[in-house]
């Protein structure tokens, strides 16, 4: 099933902020002004780093600065403010980032993470899109490593290792597995307690992601899991870059820790993407996934 990205207008450089009209109406964008900006826009960058955010101004600035401090220069940063109480534009202005022409900012009414990511996908101009969560950071050589791998292998989709940082100042490198087939990776996504991919840092050929329909806006969470299962079930296999390019900060606000709320979504995804569709297989996978999610929730609760 195709999930087309939400319509949005291209955002001028980060000196102005545009409100994207919602489904119930709202301020319209000045399309003629945007056409003028597009005609004067520089050559499309190699990579668009896309960040969707809501109410994380300090962490967002850290994420953006991690990209700007990197060794790779052929990029743009697309930030979609998904209805933050205090507009992201204010945080960027306070941090002195609004004048940076590499940052493109879009503001929309709060419509959810999937819609925000689809807006970023539509606005992006780079050949490749690199996802960065608003509370993560790229390493100094992160984009360089990604670009070198994509160029050397001709891959259209990659995922990477990452560094996990806890609130106690401890960190560890998470080494993710490499899979020989899309089918094996699909089953690993459904059965492995720790997901065998990290969405933040994932890099995709933009036209490929657009062709797949972008993110599914019908589910509230686990949108990254749905996307990767859809990709794998189509026979496409993301390539593994065995190098940590993202610094993942684990904290109480991580969306991924809404494990109980995600069980119903897991049930739907497993029912849809489990193969082969043998009676009882999907139910067994759902039961295993539920136990896994409950176990992780208990461990997290004890650590708090």
TrEMBL record:
Q: Where is the Glycosyltransferase 2-like domain?
A: 48-166
Region Disordered, annotated ranges: 1-30
Pfam families this protein is in?
Glycos_transf_2
Skewed-composition ranges (Polar residues): 1-19
- Signal sequence range: none
UniProt superkingdom? Bacteria
What protein name applies here? Answer: Glycosyltransferase family 2 protein
What is the species of this protein? Micromonospora sonneratiae
Q: What is the lineage of its organism?
A: Bacteria, Bacillati, Actinomycetota, Actinomycetes, Micromonosporales
């Amino acid at each position: 099933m195709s999930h087309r990205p939400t319509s949005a207008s291209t955002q001028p450089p980060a000196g102005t902020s545009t409100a994207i009209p919602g489904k119930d109406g709202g301020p319209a964008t000045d399309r003629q002004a945007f056409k003028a900006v597009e005609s004067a826009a520089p050559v499309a960058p190699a990579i668009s780093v896309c960040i969707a955010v809501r109410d994380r101004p300090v962490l967002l600035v850290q994420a953006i600065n991690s990209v700007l401090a990197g060794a790779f220069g052929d990029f743009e940063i697309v930030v979609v403010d998904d209805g933050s109480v205090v507009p992201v534009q204010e945080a960027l202005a306070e941090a002195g980032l609004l004048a940076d022409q590499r940052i493109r900012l879009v503001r929309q009414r709060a419509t959810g993470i999937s819609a925000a990511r689809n807006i970023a996908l539509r606005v992006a101009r780079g050949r490749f899109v690199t996802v960065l969560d608003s509370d993560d950071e790229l390493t100094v050589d992160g984009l360089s490593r990604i670009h070198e791998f994509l160029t050397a292998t001709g891959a259209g989709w990659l995922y990477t290792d990452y560094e996990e940082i806890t609130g106690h100042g401890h960190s560890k490198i998470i080494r993710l597995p490499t899979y020989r087939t899309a089918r094996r990776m699909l089953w690993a996504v459904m059965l492995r307690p720790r997901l065998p991919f990290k969405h933040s840092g994932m890099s995709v050929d933009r036209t490929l992601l657009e062709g797949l329909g972008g993110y599914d806006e019908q589910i509230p969470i686990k949108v990254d899991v749905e996307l990767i299962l859809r990709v794998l079930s189509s026979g496409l296999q993301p390539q593994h870059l065995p190098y940590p390019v993202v610094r993942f900060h684990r904290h109480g606000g991580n969306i991924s820790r809404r494990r109980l709320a995600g069980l119903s979504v897991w049930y739907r995804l497993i029912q849809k993407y489990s193969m082969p569709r043998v009676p009882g297989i999907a139910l067994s996978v759902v039961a295993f996934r539920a136990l896994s999610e409950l176990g992780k929730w208990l461990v997290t609760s004890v650590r708090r």
